[in-house]
């Protein structure tokens, strides 16, 4: 009986052990199937079949990287090979995410147990246990909500990758899909953005910061939450010390390092943002080789920021720069704004905005005059003048409110006088011809016909862009051959002749004449570069824009300074605003390029002239005090000076156009000039301001409502003004009328000459 009982107990125990063994075996088989077989039922993550691609790579003229454009998802991605990842960044990433990566098969059960315990103790999910391989499975698949099926898929795909790929291949794919925040994917793009450097130059602290960011790119964003990022970085550093991947000394020094070094913010800014933005909007892909010189671009940006800092008390917020290589039309540097993040329109490209060029169009006025028979010694009247335009009568003034009387084209252009420029335009070709010339020079954005602008075109009443104007000046430097400016390397375009070389040389020679400028600008105002260059400044009305554009034979530099909202600067002209930037950029552009300057065109000659009349010396010797050497060609050779040009004392005769200037207190050259005898015999007296039939408006926005109007006529000194209905204040030869609404008659009379003239005017309030 007992034996039977023992046998039954033995069999029962054996059966239980068999069940246990069977269960254990079943579990083992299930585990083996789950670990080794089931993963093959899951495809590799979809993203692994389509490796991450770099956005368009923008290179400078020498192949140096300027930027990587974002892809369709707006992420900046720069795929790397694992060998390119610094050892410390690799170790920091393992310390932060998966320290047993090289010893597990896709799932870390020790980390899983730790996470379960931590989450149970905290009553919530406070720690995860996903391995690098599991994270790759998640990142390489389309986004899905978190769920058990999703986690199961990640697990099996992780196992599939571990059995199909090497650890190195998994790590490489993982790094190239890591989101480091701020739309940067991959460690190379992150290193450039946060630190402005290559991965190979990262410090231990910088490696630790990058390694910690993928856990929460937005939450740990070091630009918005530096304290969180610092805490995470230091945690990664301490883990590296615990694992023996960094020595105590290395970690201690890294813990003391700030998140970002001094100047990191500047390094983070893109080098040519307006160029890359244009390429991005054009949908460019692949490799884009630009014509930019990265070193020059970087230096020009620094110069712009330095000079705007100097001008910050003058309400100046923006500047733009274009540097062109004359031989090719290649744009070597393009600064669209001082700071693309600036709230005052930093996103705008100042090189394409249309603004008033002020005096910067005058070189083309005189180049046109040279084509039509003038030469640099041609004398023009710089005297008070009234012009009729489509908008009524205009009485322009020179920028310094002074008049120089008889003035040569050389001095008029060098000193940037307005009246002679308008007279030259009216005499040589007119506004319609100048508009056509500007169009042929690439300035094609001027709206309206010539009658809309009139002679005011000479002094900048049409709007142009800096890029177009720089291209036009480059044509002067090129001797009259036009080439369009370009930003991408490619086939060259044939040159197109626009101006004769003689006209370009004469214009350039004047713009390079430092001595001629000294008549209007102080020595301190004239830029003193260590080589010869041509240059012209321009300032629009109310100091809204100022320009400085110039060239050597090799390089043309264009600079604009102002505010994108067109608000006026505080007394900042071209010499104070744009010129210092021009000088700095021009010197920088020639740092490794010896400068040269245009030479006289064959057939041009130097002649000795009388600067007062513009006539050349012949049999009659010109007094040394008034003699000048000047360039001309056989076609524009001036007449010889004759005795009939002077009075008995050797003074040069002036015609009636100069009478008002010559008889005014501002004339200090009466020992050099005299009026022609009988200047007033038979000449009809005229009231110049206000002209007969004028309709005048009292504007409440003008000082004193614009009631005070200076009276002008063509009569010499001694004229007397009167009106039966208006008050006229006269002191010497200066007369001012105080306007009132109504119809009035103003009379001017010269008692000695017995000449008189009247003008009827109508005045109304606005």
Automatic annotation (TrEMBL):
TM segment ranges: 20-42
Any one GO molecular-function label of the UniProt entry: peptidoglycan glycosyltransferase activity
* Uppermost EC category: transferase
Cite the EC number: 2.4.99.28
A single GO cellular-component term from the record reads: outer membrane-bounded periplasmic space
The keyword Hydrolase appears for this protein: yes
Q: Which domain of life is it from?
A: Bacteria
* Residue ranges annotated for the Glycosyl transferase family domain, each copy included: 66-240
> In what pathway does it function?
Cell wall biogenesis; peptidoglycan biosynthesis
Catalysis performed (reactions): [GlcNAc-(1->4)-Mur2Ac(oyl-L-Ala-gamma-D-Glu-L-Lys-D-Ala-D-Ala)](n)-di-trans,octa-cis-undecaprenyl diphosphate + beta-D-GlcNAc-(1->4)-Mur2Ac(oyl-L-Ala-gamma-D-Glu-L-Lys-D-Ala-D-Ala)-di-trans,octa-cis-undecaprenyl diphosphate = [GlcNAc-(1->4)-Mur2Ac(oyl-L-Ala-gamma-D-Glu-L-Lys-D-Ala-D-Ala)](n+1)-di-trans,octa-cis-undecaprenyl diphosphate + di-trans,octa-cis-undecaprenyl diphosphate + H(+)
Q: Which UniProt keywords apply?
A: Carboxypeptidase, Glycosyltransferase, Hydrolase, Membrane, Multifunctional enzyme, Protease, Transferase, Transmembrane, Transmembrane helix
Does the keyword field hold Iron? Answer: no
A GO BP entry is: proteolysis
Q: Which residues form the Penicillin-binding protein transpeptidase domain?
A: 320-586
What family does the Swiss-Prot or TrEMBL record give for this protein? Answer: In the N-terminal section; belongs to the glycosyltransferase 51 family. In the C-terminal section; belongs to the transpeptidase family.
What is the recorded name of this protein?
Answer: peptidoglycan glycosyltransferase
**Originating species:** Akkermansia muciniphila
């Amino acid at each position: 009986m007992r034996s039977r009982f023992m046998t039954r107990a033995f069999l029962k125990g054996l059966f239980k052990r068999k069940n246990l063994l069977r269960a254990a075996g079943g579990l083992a088989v299930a585990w083996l199937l789950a670990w080794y077989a089931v993963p093959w039922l899951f495809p590799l993550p979809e993203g692994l079949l389509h490796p991450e691609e770099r956005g368009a790579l923008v290179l400078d003229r020498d192949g140096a990287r300027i930027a990587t454009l974002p892809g369709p998802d707006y992420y900046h991605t720069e795929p790397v090979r694992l060998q390119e990842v610094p050892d410390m960044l690799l170790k920091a990433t393992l310390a932060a995410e998966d320290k047993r990566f090289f010893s597990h098969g896709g799932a870390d059960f020790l980390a899983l147990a730790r996470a379960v315990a931590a989450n149970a103790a905290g009553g919530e999910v406070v720690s995860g246990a996903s391995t690098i391989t599991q994270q790759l499975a998640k990142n390489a698949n389309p986004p899905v909500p978190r769920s058990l099926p999703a986690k199961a898929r990640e697990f099996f795909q992780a196992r599939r990758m571990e059995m199909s790929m090497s650890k190195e291949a998994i790590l490489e794919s993982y790094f190239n899909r890591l989101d480091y925040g701020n739309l940067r994917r991959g460690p190379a793009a992150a290193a450039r953005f946060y630190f402005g450097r290559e991965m190979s130059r990262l410090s231990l602290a910088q490696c630790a910061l990058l390694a910690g960011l993928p856990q929460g790119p937005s939450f740990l964003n070091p630009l918005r939450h530096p304290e969180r990022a610092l805490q995470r970085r230091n945690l990664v550093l301490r883990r590296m010390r615990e694992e023996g991947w960094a020595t105590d000394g290395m970690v201690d020094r890294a813990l003391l390092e700030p998140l970002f070094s001094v100047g990191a913010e500047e390094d983070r800014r893109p080098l040519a943002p307006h160029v890359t933005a244009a390429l991005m909007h054009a949908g460019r892909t692949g490799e884009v080789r630009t014509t930019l010189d990265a070193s020059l671009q970087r230096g020009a940006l620094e110069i712009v920021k330095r000079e705007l800092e100097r001008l910050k008390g003058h309400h100046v917020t923006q500047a733009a720069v274009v540097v062109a290589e004359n031989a090719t039309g290649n744009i070597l540097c393009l600064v669209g704004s001082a700071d693309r993040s600036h709230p005052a329109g930093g996103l705008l490209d100042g090189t394409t905005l249309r603004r008033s060029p002020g005096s910067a169009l005058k070189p083309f006025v005189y180049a046109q005059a040279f084509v039509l028979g003038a030469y640099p010694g041609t004398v023009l009247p710089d005297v008070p003048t009234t012009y009729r335009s489509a908008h009524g009568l205009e009485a322009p003034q020179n920028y310094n409110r002074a008049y120089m009387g008889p003035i040569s084209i050389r001095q008029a252009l060098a000193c940037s006088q307005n009246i002679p420029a308008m007279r030259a335009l009216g005499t040589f070709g007119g506004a319609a011809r100048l508009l056509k010339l500007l169009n042929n020079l690439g300035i094609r954005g001027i709206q309206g016909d010539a009658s809309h602008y009139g002679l005011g075109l000479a002094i900048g009443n049409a709007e142009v862009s800096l890029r177009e104007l720089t291209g036009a000046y480059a044509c002067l430097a090129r001797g009259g051959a036009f080439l369009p400016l370009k930003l991408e390397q490619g086939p060259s375009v044939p040159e197109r002749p626009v101006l004769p070389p003689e006209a370009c040389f004469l214009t350039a020679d004047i713009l390079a004449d430092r001595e001629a400028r000294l008549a209007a600008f102080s020595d301190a105002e004239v830029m003193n570069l260590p080589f010869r260059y041509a240059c012209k400044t321009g300032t629009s009305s109310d100091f809204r824009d100022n320009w400085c554009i110039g060239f050597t034979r090799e390089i043309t530099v264009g600079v604009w300074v102002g505010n994108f909202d067109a608000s006026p600067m505080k007394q900042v002209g071209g010499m104070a605003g744009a010129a210092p930037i021009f000088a700095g950029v021009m010197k920088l552009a020639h740092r490794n390029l010896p400068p040269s300057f245009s030479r006289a065109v064959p057939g041009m000659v130097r002649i000795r002239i009388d600067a007062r009349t513009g006539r050349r010396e012949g049999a009659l010797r010109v007094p040394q005090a008034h003699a000048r050497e000047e360039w001309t060609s056989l076609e524009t050779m001036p007449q010889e000076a004759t005795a009939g040009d002077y009075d008995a004392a050797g003074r040069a005769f002036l015609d009636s156009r100069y009478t008002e200037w010559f008889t005014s207190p501002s004339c200090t050259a009466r020992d050099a000039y005299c009026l022609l005898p009988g200047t007033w015999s038979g000449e009809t007296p005229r009231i110049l301001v206000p002209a007969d039939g004028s309709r005048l408006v009292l504007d409440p926005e003008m000082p004193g409502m614009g009631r005070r109007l200076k009276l002008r006529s063509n009569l010499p000194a001694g004229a007397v003004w009167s009106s039966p209905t208006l008050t006229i204040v006269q002191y010497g030869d200066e007369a001012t009328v105080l306007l009132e609404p109504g119809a009035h008659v103003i009379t001017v009379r010269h008692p000695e000459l017995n000449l008189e003239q009247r003008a009827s005017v109508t005045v109304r309030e606005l």
